[in-house]
Fold these 4 entries.
Entry 1:
Amino acid sequence: MESRELEQAFGKYPSVTLPSVPVESRGSYDERLNRILEAAMVVIASEGYSNASMRAVAKAANVSLAGLYHYFTNKEHILFLIQFRTFTFLLNSLRERLHGVDEPVEQLRVMVKSHVGYFATHMSALKVCSHELDLLSGEAFTEIRQVRVEYYQATRSIIDRVIDKHAPESHLDRHVVTMSLFSMLNWLYRWYAPGQERSPSGLANQILSIFLGGAIGAANIEVESEGKTQPARD
Amino acid sequence: MESRELEQAFGKYPSVTLPSVPVESRGSYDERLNRILEAAMVVIASEGYSNASMRAVAKAANVSLAGLYHYFTNKEHILFLIQFRTFTFLLNSLRERLHGVDEPVEQLRVMVKSHVGYFATHMSALKVCSHELDLLSGEAFTEIRQVRVEYYQATRSIIDRVIDKHAPESHLDRHVVTMSLFSMLNWLYRWYAPGQERSPSGLANQILSIFLGGAIGAANIEVESEGKTQPARD
DNA sequence: CCATTCACCGAACGACCGTTCGGCTCATAC
DNA sequence: GTATGAGCCGAACGGTCGTTCGGTGAATGG
């Protein structure tokens, strides 16, 4: 058995390789805020939001505990900023890259490559977005939810076009199909650590292949399947 | 847009419908422990392990705070028991159901149906197992990891047989393929709530279809793909 | 030169946390 | 009848948490 990949998949999380950029006190307000956010992402990604104390974030960001409250109204605010910025970037980035791409399968490739690529370079951010999805509430939650829904819908419409074009008779529930793709992408933080033998770009292609053609591609397997409205069989 | 499924996928978690079984003080030690564990699973699933206080667990289980320590040495012990029992049950259940099933695809169907079926009836348990995977450490972590690895390997060997039989020339990285299946299963707790229009059994079939045949099934799409050892393209 | 604002900090507050301790009740054993 | 132990609890302990308050020193504007 390949023990290293099992180590990665079932050991503790792949390490996030903190770039050890000490937060310098120079720079504009926005630059300083970004640096603090970067440090906060690493702490929250590795400890979890609830276990990540403001004191730990302050230490990682080279700021005093009280100094944090110059940039954030409270702890939730940090999580909100991380999630809002990440999801917004993901959405805008997807829309930009989609410009001029018309073929549905090609659009899907763009989506997967974009997402995996961003994941590979911002693992902490995407881990926080995947793992701490439900900790916000009220307005903050609603606002982020809006961006997530738009990201879903953009992806869903691509998937719709792919299926309409290449498998119009498909009996698959397209919401389930879409969530399956997001599952593969959102679960990455649990097992994937970029390495030279498994590059982000190669991984994106593999995910695309699996999602489009499944594990056995064009082979002709009869998968007896109930339509989504039929009752359960057992 | 189908707003209810978006509500489920992007709203707060599907509610876990606490069966409101008050922990009765009668029964054997094991029965009482099981009831407390059941209550703890619901609390931990809805609040998260770190936010689930021993006081909240005690209240949900109708036991005093100090009384909890008659059954558990500490808080981690509760999490350990939940995870160990769930993963062990999942593994044993899979092995039992596999008896007498020889066809690889049929074995895979058994695996997916078994997992989804258990998920549908024990959402809290599987949510705790999916979401709080990395909170244990030391011996407890190692012990649970062992069970998880066995569950992975059982699934991996099924997938190997499926690919060897139906797509022997496949270029896919089989670890990635296996983790993709687990991604779909482990991410379920984020969006799936069993309902009559999307039964557990129907969902299992859909996941199986997507995993085996992909979104477009046998349609002939060229998915340009780098082998897993080739360098990244961009 | 002085007033104001910004950026930041040390120290503290009250709330809540996991855990422990001493003691209570009640069924069983002798 | 009394000793024993299991099962359970109220109360408290020390610690950590998020947050706030009152301040300092440097930069800025008039």
Entry 2:
Amino acid sequence: MGGLMRRPTIVDIAKAAGVSKGAVSYALNGRPGVSEETRRRILAIASDMGWAPSSPARALSPGGRIGAIGLVVDRPAHSLGLEPFFMQLVSGIETELASSNNDLLLQVTEDMGAETAAYRRWSAERRVDGVIMVDLRVDDPRIGLVEGLPLPAVVLGGPEGAGSLPCLYTDDSVAMREVVHYLAALGHRRIVRVAGPEEFVHTRARTAAFLDAAEQAGLAEAYSVHADYTGEAGTRTTRRLLARTDRPTALVYDNDLMAVAGLGVAREMGVGVPSQLSIVAWDDSVLCRLVRPSLTAIARDIVSYGRLAAAMLGDAIEGRPVRNQETSRGELYPRASTGPMGA
Amino acid sequence: MGGLMRRPTIVDIAKAAGVSKGAVSYALNGRPGVSEETRRRILAIASDMGWAPSSPARALSPGGRIGAIGLVVDRPAHSLGLEPFFMQLVSGIETELASSNNDLLLQVTEDMGAETAAYRRWSAERRVDGVIMVDLRVDDPRIGLVEGLPLPAVVLGGPEGAGSLPCLYTDDSVAMREVVHYLAALGHRRIVRVAGPEEFVHTRARTAAFLDAAEQAGLAEAYSVHADYTGEAGTRTTRRLLARTDRPTALVYDNDLMAVAGLGVAREMGVGVPSQLSIVAWDDSVLCRLVRPSLTAIARDIVSYGRLAAAMLGDAIEGRPVRNQETSRGELYPRASTGPMGA
DNA sequence: GCCGTCTGCTTAACCGGTTCAGTTTCTGTG
DNA sequence: CACAGAAACTGAACCGGTTAAGCAGACGGC
């Protein structure tokens, strides 16, 4: 068991190299103050010993960074597993972090109180250098809190409502227009959107874009109903909508999970897809391609989204200026779940 | 912006209370050495100032803990989002960690090399106090590595192959027997299992249990084929199986994602479920309940699994003895995807 | 009245890095 | 040859905690 061996420190390296620990620090950090020859010798010894800097020790120095960022995901755990969005986001974030040996702290909470508590604690205990916040809400309590904390942050969403914090957002209006016009071109007149929670800023933006596009396309009967992203809500909402006498002929869901739930309800109620009902999912995923009929979906590059967010946060942590950014827009991928009525 | 305010330290508290910082430390940690009255005064001041211990500083002291554990998930990111297993596991782990103000570092990697590198780095840089390892493999290189590192660990899987590391495992044989006998009772004779990767220990254990149960039930034709948990593999494998002349009448999938993929293929090929083919998924999820027909599944309490794993790791970190444990077994939840042939 | 012990606290070292202020040595210049 | 200036390195302070050792004063016992 090598398990008991003491981890080497820069003092060990200093002894081995016959120099002071200050010199070792300069050498290892590529700063001036040591000759090239000494630097090489020190680096060789460090590598020999398998030395790596203690992150707590580094963090303790004035101006030191712990080398970790935090992400809180505030959604019910049982629905979360199904949303590829988060895992892809995490994957993108880590791609960026990996290049600088940074780590990700993940917390899954069930309410906003626990989320704000997490930011407070992380900041006070110096566990992270910064945080990425998702699911921006209208009058989001997190914004004021984090603005008042010594905690760099990047907001996914906005730019309205992000306060003074840098943010990264998608303009969904173009994709929304594409979807609505596509459905209108297929002959649909009664298009209903099963949206995410109303308190999310991006839900509102999409709602406005949806109404806008519908008006443009001359659809007076388009409207949105709100659900909470869970499969259960998707099931309930769809059942209610399909039971109406003026049943919609096309449904646009704000996430893939609700769309799949909607597909199940349609089958249950004997409503043919796409012959009697067209279905579109926002945010594509393996899931959309696996179910039958496969779901027409709007895909975004979420991995890049995460990578960019992490890069922005890195800049903010280093004290570099950070500008709000817009990411690539979603694109429509028509599949088997959409078509003209009766086809 | 209070953002610029210096975070209070124990020295600030000591000054305010008119005592030494040592006394403050004793008071805050509930150790003897200060009078009850002084302790109360110090606690009040600390709470007033909004003080919280700097985790890097704590970690730096001899024997200090950083208060974080690590989890590496080594699966392709795009399939991962769909597996409720991991999010539920994370959720369970965090439930346990929350009680002691500990955090979770999550890393999503695409290969074993990156995973072992993560353990090395985390240990060398003292970023975590311990790790939880999932998806134990046959001759797993992680075991030897971690055994040789000063890094407490708990293995999910085993107990064979976990080396000297404490492990937490499920005995799937009971549930497997239940599934096979249930299908046999429905009249199925050609049952095929679409298994996870062969190199996973738990896959092998299930394979053995499956063969055992099939023999018991007098099914000579039962066998397993291996896939990699992705929807694509599920699709491909199922297509191949359903194209055979001696087509199986029941399929048992090792995860929900492949089962859903299989259902899609059956529809595509005009094979009725459950009239011509029964489908069972291992590990239940929202997904199984959302698709039509809903999938018969084996459910385990994964949240508890995670919680227990975190508790075991906590013991290991504190140096308390840790015994291998078996968790609750899975249970079969029959739904619409299974039935007698031709029904 | 002296000693031993306990309580309640202080002092100082330590963890493993970073960094600033010096000190020594080397080099080039007038 | 004296001297400036840079290069290479040392020593020590510092970050924010924990903890061992030391010490003053109170108290009790004989």
Entry 3:
Amino acid sequence: MTAVGLRERKKAATRQALHEAALRLALEHGPDRITVDAIADEAGVSRRTFSNYFANKEEALFHGDLRRMRALADLVRARPASESPWAALTAAAEEHYAGLGDLDPEWVARGRLVRRHPSLAAAQVQTFATMESELAAEVAARLQGQDPLGVRAKLVAATFMAVLRVSLNVWLEHPAEISYWELARESLAETGRGFT
Amino acid sequence: MTAVGLRERKKAATRQALHEAALRLALEHGPDRITVDAIADEAGVSRRTFSNYFANKEEALFHGDLRRMRALADLVRARPASESPWAALTAAAEEHYAGLGDLDPEWVARGRLVRRHPSLAAAQVQTFATMESELAAEVAARLQGQDPLGVRAKLVAATFMAVLRVSLNVWLEHPAEISYWELARESLAETGRGFT
DNA sequence: AGCAAAGTTGCGCAACAGGCAAGTTTGGGA
DNA sequence: TCCCAAACTTGCCTGTTGCGCAACTTTGCT
């Protein structure tokens, strides 16, 4: 009768625990000075189990971002089908970020971590790329028939994610001068002119 | 007196040899069934030396793409300073791809490899990301003073590379129906409307 | 000719991904 | 309520990797 079984919940909890352990250790010792062993320990699980959940530390570290972005994707899905893809994406982003965006402390912490440790940039890019293809599928659904090769869907998704990524990185360099969402909204508006 | 010393040339040759060895073996056995050892052997060099040139197989595999893209960046640099960044980028791409783009057999081979082995997608994304930041620097030079936070430069570079990447991937799925550059040009035109 | 800088190599080690099989937990019938 | 199959965890193990270090070789400059 539970909406989702115990099994599922336990899995999610373990994944989350691993993620949080990774983040905690990375913040404390620096992301390049931690081992998978240490993360598993910190999460109270065997090293082998870590491998069942994540392919490597970076994936564990950015799991939170992926979750956040999946939440954004859900908002996109919830937008009225009548909206154009780009409109739906920006509207969903507005909902997602405008209110409490900058306030998630974990999100900010991860951001700062990336800023201070350029070696993490690769993993960040990877995370955005993952979401890009998930979003492309959603966009494609809105373009049934109008996009024979599927270029447009992928183009829109890629551009959207690229703008969010660039905005994030710029904001991390100038966090005091502007809010993330202000920056992102403006960038989206400018870049999106091709899709309206 | 030589324009470039023997030292430099030898290094370039070794790097190229490693790259070609990696590509050859990947094509023959599949990219996930080859070891760094094997690549170094094939290139007639020690495993340790491989590490002096590339951080991992993927980097070796995509070295050719990076070279290609750097050539494109050179074309960008050569465009008149009076052109807007986006105009310079697209014009350079036109020069680069329009003529012989699809004809470089290595380039096509790598493309097919990525298409058949999704595990390589990560490395491909990484390669484009690398070029993105190199290009951003070039674009920034054209926006002296007009781009206080540096957003615009990064935005333009990111969008440009995203379009090329998406176009490539779409083209790889439909190579018969259209030429790469036709597809990319159209995508650039559409997406670039925000930057004109 | 000769020396300093750059490049190569072998050795060694900590770390890691992931196959396999034995144990443990969960959930859906009967 | 009980039971079993499927799902999950864990330990063990192997092949691979990235990189520091120190010895050796090659290159370039004078």
Entry 4:
Amino acid sequence: MVMDFSQIRRNEHLPARIASQIGREISDGRIAPGEKLPTEHILAKTFGVSRSVVREAIAQLRNEGLVETRQGVGAFATDFEHRQSIRIEQGNLADHASFQSLFQLRLPLEIEAAGLAAVNHTAEDLVKLDEALEQMTGGEKWTEKGVLADLAFHRQIAASTHNEYFLLFLGFIAERIHLAINTAREAAVLTEIVEVTIAEHVAIRDALASRDPIRAREAMRHHLHGAASRLDLQLKVY
Amino acid sequence: MVMDFSQIRRNEHLPARIASQIGREISDGRIAPGEKLPTEHILAKTFGVSRSVVREAIAQLRNEGLVETRQGVGAFATDFEHRQSIRIEQGNLADHASFQSLFQLRLPLEIEAAGLAAVNHTAEDLVKLDEALEQMTGGEKWTEKGVLADLAFHRQIAASTHNEYFLLFLGFIAERIHLAINTAREAAVLTEIVEVTIAEHVAIRDALASRDPIRAREAMRHHLHGAASRLDLQLKVY
DNA sequence: TATTGTACGGTTGTCTGATAACCTTATATG
DNA sequence: CATATAAGGTTATCAGACAACCGTACAATA
């Protein structure tokens, strides 16, 4: 029996495919920055799709900051310096060096966040922090739920800074890191040293509660360096 | 004659506005994660625009990872675990508090970057750094070109860490900040104290060149706090 | 009863064609 | 020469249609 997979594989979002194709033209420099793209009509003809699809593709590129469109003029390739959003492909973090780099970035942010949270947190913040801590210490020690509680703990610290951007960036970064860890199945390693981890979290919490930014920063630094060494990361430090 | 302002005002880029409006519904939790959005037809009716515009808006949200669409079923708000990107609406930074928050976030990143750059930079990095510095000190002191050189200087420091994420995040943040400053026309204030700023930059450069991370961090911290006070920001510090 | 097949309504995906808004360029006009 | 106007091209938006696909309800079958 012969199956025709080329027919079945026809799917996977037409505009996205065309967008990445045009995007590659730009990234590879075949369309120089500032240069005008072909008109929508021409692109539609070239790819053999309708103008709607081309428009959606271009809209996506514009959203990523790769092109700018001017009504009545055309679409132009921009250079990649001013894009409107940050994006991390999950695949990138499979690489150990890349993962380590992201962790290195997280370090100063978490430390600073701990310091700010120590100063800015409210009573409600502390309650939520304790709830997350509760879930970590509770019965089933390091299940999926425990990992989520760990995430929630750090997220709550970011929220306790009352700085929207710390929450936005740290939430994003921590999420990527935890996801990368999970897919790498390194969580197994963590099971054994869970007591240590919890103790470090408690130390952070206590420093926060006593509104001591210096101690909070130090506790967070200690925790992250511990976590890093457990993950076999070699972070620069001085 | 009655005008319906609840409908979208249509002076510029309709889909982007609708996207951010729907996006806010999701971010603020009025549409719960996993919940289904109204159909495109209904959304089109609600906003008083055509389905094409709604589709482009949803495409944008999907690109940002806030919604997922399934053909024949509908569009769903994703739980923010798989949000693939960070985005900052430029309008948000018009608010002084928000601008200050972003600057506060930038602080620890720049400082850490300075420390890492002091350790990791290569000879070429230093050359590029000096080129940026050259453009700042050159003839026309604080024109648009000078501002760009300032940006390039900080960008080069981020690059000198040889950590892709520092470059990605700091480049992004610094860009937003400089844009916000420019649109607020606060650049005029900077004109007078340009000598101070340049001196601070030189101090950073020298610390970097001598591969002294502690001094580099301190120089960067001093510079940013100086810049902050010039911008009338009140940053938390301890 | 339990499983499978099928028809149906609803939703997103794509196509087509038209009109509006806008920009650039060329031409006419004084 | 400078300015106004017309023309043509391009993107933005609109409207309506059909295709592809999904979930469900219900009938058919074993």
